[in-house]
Sequence to fold (75 residues):
Amino acid sequence: MSKTDVVETEGVVVEVLRNANFKVQLSNGFIITAYLSGKLHLNNIRILVGDQVKVEMSLYDLTKGRIIWRLKNKN
Fold:
C-alpha cells in the first residue's frame, strides 16, 4: 500500500477490541475496524473509548483502517 492509495479521515473510538483493534466511528457515520500503527504500538500510546483519532484507510477496502494519530482533547 503506497502513500497515494490511502484515505485519511478522523473519527471517534467506539469500542476497544482484542489485540490493539478498535471500532471507530468516522465523521461520516460509518463504523470501521482499525488497528494501531507501528509507532503508536511501540511507544505504548493508550487509546480509550471516546478518543478522537486520525485513521488511514486503503481505497480497496474501506471497512478496515489503521490508526495513525491520537488527537488532543479540546477540554
